[in-house]
Amino acid sequence: MPRILTGLQPTGLLHIGNYFGAIEPMVSLQAEGNENFLFIVDYHAITVPQDPKKLREHMLFAAAVYLAAGIDPARTTLFQQSRVPAHTELAWILDCHAYMGEMERMTQFKDKAKGKGESVSVGLFVYPILMAADILLYDIAAVPVGVDQKQHVELARDLAERFNRLYGQTFTVPEPKIRARGARVMGLDDPLKKMSKSASSPKNYISLLDDEETIRKKIMSAVTDAGTTIAYDEARPGLANLLTIFSLVTQRDVASVEADYAGKGYADFKRGLAEAVIAFLRPIQTKIREYQKDEIELKRILDTGALRASELAEQKMKVVRERIGVTL
Ligand code: ATP
Ligand code: LTN
Fold first, then answer.
1. Model confidence pLDDT, tens digit, residues 42-61
2. Which residues are near ligand 2 (CB < 6 Å)?
């Protein structure tokens, strides 16, 4: 059975880009009889300053969101990264096999370090190596991620191949799995950049928890171009993004959405989109709240996941320790 894994950072905010880029693909892959792993990357989150109390809350929120989205703990090992110490142990071993040159090419680090000067953490720099460890521990075939994470999965492939060459076959070489539509939902206020929770304005994104009025306001003020027809065109990135979102939330083809709005203008289209997004999010929001009420159950699910992940990770670490020569 092919193994699939992805991780998301525990932040208090998850947006529809995260949902369509990473969460929903995990839910559909679960239905195809794969062996799924979904984990909350708390040790990645601390590469930037975190308030400990909030981090804890965000972790439980993340777990509630995954369950609300349809992750079934019986079919997906759902766990917290820090509960499986093998992640950081393997990361150290991989640190010693990664090159400064290849790390300096990581575009996300360059983006995130911008403006931080000397005070950027070393953790942020080696972040992609911890991610490689996350993946390589479990013999993962495919990693569903948004486009922005493709370079990191490629680093994991390079490190796996390097290690296998040096020490003999140890790691499965993973493939990034990037969906055709939804892997790069763009910002509502700037359709040339991806929707991002660290955007300077909340108008950039639709949070999974936004209320109806907020969703309407954000969509009505989304940036579009001067054209008048509702037709998908890459040269009109604002409209193309809104059409993509419409199609994602309604599970309809872009062409059929266009057909509904033939002869109509932006105002009608945006109103329709806002209602479609609201209808899509409503049941998810209700479920998130329900799961959030039962902290004990959330913790129980994460405990079970950690136990299963630890067993597999420890088996792999035994081989790795032997291969590098530290086992007596
Ligand atoms: P930030 O933009 O602040 O770095 P983020 O929104 O990218 O944060 P992450 O925790 O880094 O959040 O990403 C979680 C997952 O969501 C990753 O798989 C990522 O590729 C995916 N993702 C993030 N933004 C988008 C987007 N706009 N469209 C599609 N997928 C996305
Ligand atoms: N770097 C990813 C989160 C992440 C991840 C992983 C994704 C950490 N470890 C392993 C897939 C597989 C991010 O920022 N979204």
1. 999 999 999 999 999 999 99
2. 5-9, 41, 44, 131, 134-135, 143, 145, 149, 152
